[in-house]
């Protein structure tokens, strides 16, 4: 469906070491520049299904709802990169859009995903796929290099209306010299550890900034269903000998998520 970049490959030992040390890898090729139109078409197709009263950024179960979205997440070249970090047996458990339209003043504050995710052990890898070019001007994701090592940072509540999340890590805890902007060309991806501090600034440009996140974990990771009763996994590589979590079926068609947390049964009747 989407033309693959001829420069796709497996991760090198140096890149894997960098991920372990710094908590991220960026600028990895997946889709070619010729796929730009098709990626835009996918975004328009899926996002247009959402009622204007619903925030696209708050719908987080696209991988369970849409076969088109699921197929994108399971592109073999993407799974190859993830396998190089997680090993041969892993699941997909999250997929959503992160959109900032031109002049969008929203801010994603510094945070760690493990602060929110009731998963043990903490081994998740997030893939961030650029549907459009992203840079400092239009609100590219920023990370704090090496911040995934050590204890969880102290998060505090901030109810400011322009913040996408209400929990944040204050700037005085962040080493400014370690901040890196993950600028990506359309079709490229970044990978980051679930303990890595990250966030993003407003989109001050006249260009759309949108990416798709895909969440993967090895099969030995278990979710606390008392906190995340909706949690389900889809085995995308290898074998699941642990069977620790509920399983979501591969979508058989196209459905539309309308909330952040939904069970696969909400979508089955729409296919």
List the helices and strands and how they pair.
Layout: H1 13-22, E1 24-29, H2 36-47, H3 62-65, H4 67-73, H5 76-86, E2 90-100, E3 108-111, E4 119-120, E5 125-130, E6 141-144, E7 156-157, E8 167-168, E9 179-181, E10 188-193, E11 198-200, E12 209-218, E13 222-223, E14 234-237, H6 265-268
Antiparallel strand pairs: 1-10, 2-12, 2-14, 3-11, 4-13, 5-10, 5-12, 6-9, 6-11, 7-8
Please explain how this structure is put together.
The protein is of the alpha+beta class. The chain has one domain (13-268): Sandwich (Jelly Rolls). 18% of the residues lie in helices and 24% in strands. It has helices at residues 13-22, 36-47, 62-65, 67-73, 76-86, 265-268; strands at residues 24-29, 90-100, 108-111, 119-120, 125-130, 141-144, 156-157, 167-168, 179-181, 188-193, 198-200, 209-218, 222-223, 234-237. A 6-stranded antiparallel β-sheet has the order 1-10-5-12-2-14. Strands 3-11-6-9 form a 4-stranded antiparallel β-sheet, with no helix packed on it. The longest helix has 12 residues, at 36-47. It is globular. The protein starts with 12 loop residues before the first helix and ends with a helix.
């Amino acid at each position: 469906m989407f033309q693959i970049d001829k420069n796709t490959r497996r991760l090198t030992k140096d890149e894997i070491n960098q991920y372990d040390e710094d908590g991220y890898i960026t600028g990895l090729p997946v889709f070619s520049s010729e796929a730009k139109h098709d990626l835009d078409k996918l975004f328009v197709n899926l996002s247009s299904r959402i009622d204007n009263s619903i925030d696209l950024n708050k719908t987080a179960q696209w991988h369970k709802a849409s076969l088109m979205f699921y197929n994108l997440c399971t592109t073999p070249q993407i799974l190859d990169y993830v396998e190089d970090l997680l090993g041969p047996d892993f699941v997909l458990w999250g997929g959503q859009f992160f959109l900032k339209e031109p002049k969008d003043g929203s801010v994603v504050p510094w945070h760690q995903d493990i602060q929110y995710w009731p998963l043990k052990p903490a081994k998740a890898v997030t893939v961030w796929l650029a549907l459009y070019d992203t840079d400092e001007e239009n609100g590219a994701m920023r990370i704090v290099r090496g911040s995934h090592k050590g204890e969880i940072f102290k998060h505090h509540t901030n109810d400011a209306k322009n913040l996408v999340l209400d929990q944040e890590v204050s700037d005085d805890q962040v080493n400014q010299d370690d901040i890196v902007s993950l600028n990506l060309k359309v079709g490229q991806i970044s990978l980051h550890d679930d303990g890595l501090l990250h966030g993003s600034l407003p989109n001050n440009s006249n260009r759309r900034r949108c990416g798709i996140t895909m969440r993967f974990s090895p099969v030995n990771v278990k979710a606390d269903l008392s906190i995340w009763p909706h949690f389900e996994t889809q085995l995308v590589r290898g074998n699941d000998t642990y069977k620790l979590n509920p399983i979501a079926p591969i979508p058989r068609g196209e459905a539309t998520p309308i909330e952040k947390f939904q069970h696969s049964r909400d979508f089955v009747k729409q296919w």
